Amino acid sequence: MKLPPMNALRAFEAVSRLGSVSKAAEELCVSQGAVSQQLRNLEDHLDRELFIRTPNSFKLSDEGETYASVVQKSLSEISFASGEVARNKTRRGLTISAGPFFAQKWLMPNLEAFYESFSGVPVVIDKTPKLVTFKNDGIDAAIRSSEDESGFSDLDSVLLFRPQIFAVASPAYIADHGILESLAEPGEHHLIDGRYSSKQQANLHTIWQDVVSGNQFDPAVQLESFPEFDQALNAALLGRGIALIPDYMIEEEIESGKIAYANPEPIPARFSCYFVSPTDARPNSDLIAFRDWLVDSLKKYGILENMGPSKTKGLS
Prior knowledge:
Layout: H1 6-18, H2 21-28, H3 32-46, E1 51-54, E2 57-60, H4 62-90, E3 94-98, H5 100-117, E4 123-127, E5 141-146, E6 155-161, E7 164-169, H6 171-177, E8 191-194, H7 208-211, H8 219-222, E9 223-226, H9 229-237, E10 242-246, H10 251-256, E11 260-268, E12 272-278, H11 285-297
């Protein structure tokens, strides 16, 4: 059977989605009569009544309901695929979404290492913790944190690493107050907490109440909390106390001597970092190269053993 005329399908999709000939006509920038004519053309082509028409109502028939679900999905996929083709024709490159602190403290400073091998692949970093849909948002992949990969059930996910948390402070603070002999017993040390700004990830961060055993400190006197990781790190740099910070976020400060370990014992983070991308994405060699570079570059951080296999379906 020949395919129905595209204009007839577009008219039918709009009417079935909007529930009105007038609204469909407005969206398609044509007259209501033109839309009605296209609907009749489609019914004639299929030799089926897709609508039930009465003097007081106009609604889809049972066959029309079934047909509408298929047409709506198909035209939506055609629209998305057309946009992807047009976008890929105009540029070669990647847009990667990453949380602002990870992007600022690790990803952007290390991009030069990626460009050494892939100089022809420009990478744009979208610094946002918001959830991405990969539907018409221009994002090719995202770096996100989750307790496990079940948080990305509808996406392809590749485990990057599980961070370790360290108690850090400025050298001046340690010189004045000494090291932290035990994470579980902070004594009179001043403690600093930072959290994720995203509500979805707020419960993933380790705070001092998770580490200190019993009633070993007075939060009202000894604890200072900040809504962002970078604020907590800045407070520690200024000598205001000991902060719990993931290892990959303090590499530069440790190497430069701006901050030091108040206690060398690592704390396994509650979360792991994943590289996520849409399951239905077309094969993209640039994206695969960037993913593999990330996996290799982040090996030196955190814990990877005994974490089980990562899911790598689709993007390979």
